[in-house]
Amino acid sequence: MSIRILVVDDEPDFIETMVKRFTFRKMPVTAASSGIAALKILETETFDVVIMDVRMPGKDGIETLKEIKKRHPLTEVIMLTGHASVESGMRGMSLGAYDYVLKPVDFDELLEKVRKAHERKRLNEGRSAT
Amino acid sequence: MKDEAPHNGPLETPQAADATAQTAPPPAAPRPLWPHLVAVPGGVAVAVLAALALPIPLAVILAMFMASLTAWSAAALFARIRASETERCSLDAQLVQSQKLAAIGEMSAGIAHEINNPMAIIAQESDWMTHLMSQPEVSPENLAELKDSLAEIVRQVDRCKTITHNLLNFSRKMEPILQEEHLERIMEDMVLLVEKEARLKGVTILRDYDAELPAIRTDVPLLRQVILNLLINAFQAIPGAGTITVSTRPTGPSQVAIAVADTGAGISPENMSKIFNPFFTTKPPGVGTGLGLSMCHGIVDRLGGTITAESAPGQGATFTVTLPR
């Protein structure tokens, strides 16, 4: 089963690498360059896992996470951060992020997290169906 | 507690520590301690002295008698400890129950407030509609007003629906979703997050993970919240440089434990009983809400585990989370 992934980051280089690596693994991946763009894409398409940077101009990662969890509670979000702020980590986790990971992150590890987040989404869906 | 002893029951000399001591517990609820603290030890002392002078067969009989007397004393004390423990457990349960009721009360007030507002508007609009309908004939303006009111009622009903829907979502979210995962993997991201900031302050994080520990079934993001909270607490408890030790251990065939220990200020004995209460904090206003540990307690409870704290003042504190595998 393929996992539908949305990568949100304002750094084009990071997005490019991510898209390349997920595509190489034959995993469908979509990119958004801002929180607002991500929310727009989520209105029309369904994703299993969102990988999102915390620090972005405009709507930051935490605000976007809040919106995503409100509108699409089943979508799992993995937050990536370059600067280790425990404050925003706390906020992110209590807003329902699946994980809060310090950059740089090993791709294989990230892949494993994506799988786990997807597994969680499936379990959650199975529950709401009954 | 102890000072009522002299008033209760007939006083006996140590030598009389025979059958009468066993048969006469006073009927009053707080039974005296003196038979155990004075009568039995005194009797033993006298018996030992007497045995020195008595012929061997008599000394043996006396020894046997005193042994059974001390056994009785120990059994009686044990029964008392058991009874008081049972009582304390039921008091704890009552306390938890009253806290639950308080939380429910608070939540109900919030819900009632949220629902009452749209209800008031619905009542008002339907009153107005009744008034309009009671007119001998319905003019076009009145018809427009009726439509308006009806639309408003539909809107308010939708508002109520959203509220109840959110409540249902909330309660579903409360159910943990169990996934198989290694404890170390759950913890490490949170440790890394705190470590960078900790290092700037001169706080070192030591990892003491049990590499043999198999994966457990738990709600991963919820447990991460608990761990991050404990790490932040530990970090904030250390005034200058210091050490935080995180460890994982098996604690039985069906349980594992996570411990977060710091070398900070520790928790004073009078605060120890309050640390898991909501809104209790020793941090200056604005730094802590006092909800961190009570939230941890709530989550760990939902995960089927327990959370405990240990501390000697000035020696730092250790928080231990025990979870089912």
Mean of pLDDT of chain A: 91
Stretches of chain B where pLDDT is under 50 for at least 5 consecutive residues are: 1-27
CATH topology of chain A: Rossmann fold
Strand order of the largest sheet of chain B: 2-4-5-7-6
Largest contact between chains: A-B, 23 and 26 residues
CATH class of chain A: Alpha Beta
Provide a descriptive summary of the structure in words.
The complex is a heterodimer of chains A (130) and B (325). Chain A has 130 residues and is of the alpha/beta class. Chain A has a single domain, classed as Response regulator (Rossmann fold), CATH 3.40.50.2300. Helix content of chain A is 51%, strand content 18%. Chain A has helices spanning 12-24, 35-44, 61-71, 86-94, 107-129, and strands at residues 5-8, 29-32, 49-53, 76-81, 99-102. Chain A contains 5 helices and 5 strands. Chain B is an alpha+beta fold and 325 residues long. Chain B has 8 helices and 7 strands; from the N terminus they run ααααβαββαββααββ. Chain B has helices at 19-23, 34-53, 56-133, 140-174, 183-201, 220-237, 269-272, 292-302; strands spanning 179-181, 203-208, 216-218, 242-252, 255-262, 306-311, 317-324. A 5-stranded mixed beta sheet of chain B has the order 2-4-5-7-6. In chain B, a hairpin with a 5-residue loop joins strand 6 (306-311) and strand 7 (317-324). In chain B, helix 3 packs antiparallel against helix 4 (140-174). The radius of gyration of chain B is 33 Å and the shape is elongated. The chains are: A alpha/beta (130), B alpha+beta (325). The A-B interface holds A 73, 81, 84-86, 89-90, 93-94, 96-102, 116, 119-120, 123-124, 127-128 and B 169, 172-173, 175, 177-179, 181, 189-190, 192-197, 220-221, 224-225, 228-229, 231-232, 235, 295.
